[in-house]
Amino acid sequence: MPATSAAAELAIAKASLTAVLLRPDPAPCPRADIDEFARQLTLTAARCSPANVQTCKRWMLQHVTPSSARTAAVGRYLVALANSFSPTAPTSTKRADKSTKETSSRRKRLHLLYIINDVLFHVTFRSGHDNGRTKSPFTTSIEPFLEPLVSSVAAFVRAPKQLAKIRSLLDLWAEKHYVADNVLARLRTAVDEGPRLAEEKLQKDREGNELQKTSSASASVAAAAAPRTGKEAPFLLPALHGDPSTPWYDLPAANWLAVLEPNSTRPMNPAALKPLQMTPGPAPPALVASVQALLADVNRMFCDDGEAGAGDHARNPGTSDTIQMDSDVDALGEHIEIDVLSGDITGGDTYYGWSRAFCKSMKERQRRRQRGHNDPDLDLPDADHDNRGRRQDNRGDNKGQGQGQGRREDDSQSSSLSSPKPAFKKRPRRCSSTQAQPELEQKSQ
Hints:
Blueprint: H1 3-21, H2 31-46, H3 50-63, H4 68-84, H5 105-125, H6 137-154, H7 160-176, H8 181-225, E1 236-237, E2 240-241, E3 276-277, E4 281-282, H9 285-302, E5 313-315, E6 322-329, E7 335-339, E8 345-348, H10 356-374, H11 383-402, H12 407-417, H13 433-444
Antiparallel strand pairs: 1-4, 2-3, 5-6, 6-7, 7-8
Helix pairs in contact: 1-4, 2-3, 2-5, 3-5, 4-5, 4-6, 5-6, 5-7, 6-8, 7-8, 11-12
Organism: Sporothrix curviconia
Domain CID: 29-195
Protein name: CID domain-containing protein
């Protein structure tokens, strides 16, 4: 298995294991504990000390063995972890220095089997399953993953000591009745077929490397021999975006867009991730302009100052004219695009992430608002003139209503007209009982 595929499978298996352990089955595990368990497995694979093996076993007995779903996720993760260890032998500058020597991939894969062996012993003889007479749920759930794990441990060429250790471990499992007899038979077959499969895999890798070297050399020769013309080749769309023979996790990211569900926590279905079918032929002009702009940005970042890259000329929309552009950085560190002929800033990125067209329109709107408030030449309604007109209207209405009334009402109406407040009829003043009594006595006399 290539290194990239093995790394992808390991990442997927770890994500699946994390998702299962976070569920309340029976109790959710903290994410920090899950990461610590993955780190401890890698550490035990590198150094198989009794303390490290016991730590992994206790964690699995507490969080994994009570659940069949968690056991299956751990088995899948162990297989992916074993395949992630490259079968090539580690390089060591000093052979006698064992303290700095890296653990080989063969030992790392074998150490994962030792962890499974300790857990099988505990669930068989220490968990009350009649000393192996009844099979534990952990054994039933882990059995489908033992065969690919044993096959990965035995997949080494010219490693007789490795095969002897695996067979000795399988003999112990047969003696203690950890697994069923038919499962043991498949495991022994996987051990016998391991070296042959490893040899075939190495042969395929050699052929693939030679074919890749030959194709790259022929491509470079063809590119050097191809005639250079001034006319650019047209942009053509392929029939498929992505290789149908490529695994789903190696497909381009654009193939995921059709499967992603907005605002959904449901994971994607890997079976639905397939290459996108496209209409072969010339690409649309908008797509060509976007690709040329992207190539121009790449050339600005990676090309030398005097080197002209593809896409350094922006095409004027709607016409066939090209505008020669130059990129620069202003005093604020903003990337700007300057027209070489006029020297005007025509584009670029602003400090706040806004487009320059948006900033220009907002400045123009603010300028129009300020001009509307401060420009005396503009025909705007005068507040004083409006108030005077409103007072004149009120005066006319009050005169019409005041005809036929007395002098006192006219005086009160005229006084109300002098104030901006509306006029009201003045009510007669009431006297208190103490003030009205002397007037009554005077009248009676």
